[in-house]
């Protein structure tokens, strides 16, 4: 793991904060800049756990799009 567990958590928290924004994928790219490819699955997993806890409701469609992007973008690095 090139990125610390604390940093993985911070990135996941930041992704939860922007998942309802107007341009979530653009902001997600900025948040994930500098994260090692090997750590993307850890951030995706942490984001998924946090997104479903936010408001006690399932993540909105934008949260699902961020999750899909995290998993797919890692393959393109």
TrEMBL record:
Protein name: Uncharacterized protein
Organism: Lichenibacterium minor
